[in-house]
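Lab meeting, action items carried over

1. Structure of the four-component assembly. Owner: GW. Status: complete.
Input record:
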Amino acid sequence: MSISSRFAVGIHILSLIAINKGGVNSSEFIAGSVNTNPVVIRKIMGMLKNAGLVKVRPGIAGAELAKDLSGITLLDVYKAVHVVQEQELFNVHDNPNPACPVGRNIQNTVVPLLLNAQLALEKNLEHVTIEDIIKDIANKEKISKE
Amino acid sequence: MSISSRFAVGIHILSLIAINKGGVNSSEFIAGSVNTNPVVIRKIMGMLKNAGLVKVRPGIAGAELAKDLSGITLLDVYKAVHVVQEQELFNVHDNPNPACPVGRNIQNTVVPLLLNAQLALEKNLEHVTIEDIIKDIANKEKISKE
DNA sequence: TTACCTGTAATCAGGATAATTACATCAAGA
DNA sequence: TCTTGATGTAATTATCCTGATTACAGGTAA
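Predicted assembly:
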């Protein structure tokens, strides 16, 4: 099991739009940087648009950020691209045997614990913004030029 | 995307073995409580055995815990049943374009952040033991009898 | 020997992913 | 207005994982 790369691609897209501000961020241009098909980019871009992170219009080439860099967290992206259903990171078997003490209690016992773990993950993602990513990339570029 | 229910079933199995201590925990018995096929149980049991959490022997009915209840954490179970590959909860697209400043840095920038989030999840699981689960089940049973 | 268990390979349907083709729709310039 | 080139989306495909199931090899004890 692995969380879809849509998430990482979403981060890539937003970072690229931010860094290439002024340039024309068409789906083909972005696909070239991500190294995938433009349709894949447009699909993910649609999700980012629905989440209010990005402005795109049919027929007009290019995309812009709809929010300030520092106002977009990785959690925003994660939720936007629907890589994990709400409260469903962990799958729990259903229909355990109600005639068994373990069977009839396991769900109520385990589900809150797993939700808690999922929450810990998501809280962590909330503390990083696209601005942080951009700064890190700029930093790495600077270092490599030295 | 969803993390395989093997994890929840693994917890179920260990809890059942603990509570039914003294009884014969055959794969068929456990399957009856989980409500699945005995082969599914045996496969997961094999993983729990490889991880040193459980003792089972070919030909002999029943399984026992190989460790103390309080010494088995949810993280132990999670790792035992291989629901998430080491350091691969998040999938990152490969071969981004090295000719692009974002493309050539995105992996080195994003991977550590995602690993960090995965670690937050796993740390959380480490703080809960099978003993906690058993106590919670016992508690819920007691309440429901009142 | 018989009966019953564990271990495991093989198969199957169902669902998700990522890539791709095809096409409808829209906007702007010649 | 017509052409060009972009976005939006449906449909298809190969690949992979899951969970259930059948089948059978091998172990253990009465």
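2. GW to write a short summary for the group page. Key points so far: The mean pLDDT of chain B is 94. The first strand of chain B starts at residue 54 and ends at 57.
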